[in-house]
Please model this.
Amino acid sequence: MTVVGAGVVGSAVALDLARRGVAVELVEAQPEPGLAASGTNSGVLHTGFDSVPGDLETDLIIRAAALRDPVLDALGVPVMRCGAVMRGSGVDRLVENARLNGVEVRLLGDDVLEVPGEAVTDPVAFTVALAAAAERHGAKVRTSQRFDAIAVGRVVVNCAGLHADDVARLYGDDSFEVYPRKGEFVVFDPPEPLDRILLPVPTKRTKGVLVFPTLDGHVVAGPTAVDGEDKDDWSVRPEARDEILPKAVAMWPPLEDAEPIAAYAGLRPAGRGVNYVIGRSRVVPDLVNVAAIRSTGLTASLGIAEYVCEILLGTPLPEPAPLLPGPPVPTGEWWRRTAELHAA
Model:
């Protein structure tokens, strides 16, 4: 079985399949896992308190939360369980939404909502750890290898992110289209410590500009949400800073006189009129598409992996083998690598 794409979703899928005894090859076009969308997001692990009850995306976010802690601990992936606060008109309407999703929240006054389960991780470390664990469990990980040929008689799981629609078209499947939604971030040396994630009230299109601490002691504000067509344009627009800063300062006034030390952009694989396209292709049943996984992919990755296993192996699923330990996961200023890589 071939899994295309060693982002956080593809790496999680490869690991889950390998732990259940499936012979897996994980193919990645980049030199290492996590260099594209997975390594250019916020690193925030959301709880799904504000997600639409009953949606597949919501179900997989919630399931991933139940699976995540033992995996993070076993793989040595760092996580900051700092919680989040949302301020703004209308936060009270999210209390019932959170209850329907089984997520703990606390209403502190009319316009302040506390979400204790929100957390921050290193998204690159998370992705690399999943891919390395998949390899320890028997998966073959092949980097710098673009998938451009149909694997005859072999099941293919299409986790190709921004290029998932291109992979599907190799099989004659044009049922969905993926386009890049650019999310730009600015990074600060904080003028004072920030001990939790600050959230705006979300819209149907975006979660809005967040302000959040990183594991390495910095503070990040963003993202923007700019729909485009160029899947290779990782640049930060000149106007991005002016779009982010006023919103960030309104949420956390200490940023008023702070000067950004870096900026980076992520390209989220948004679907054209669709979201979370996960299932067997109607054109070729041996192709399983896992596409249009937008910004919540990091959060939902373990739930997505289990769901894909159910599609391929049926239920009840075979119990996964215990996670094999490995060397410590390299961590650090992952955002700096991202900024420098795509600025080059």
Observations:
- DSSP finds eight helices and 18 strands in the chain.
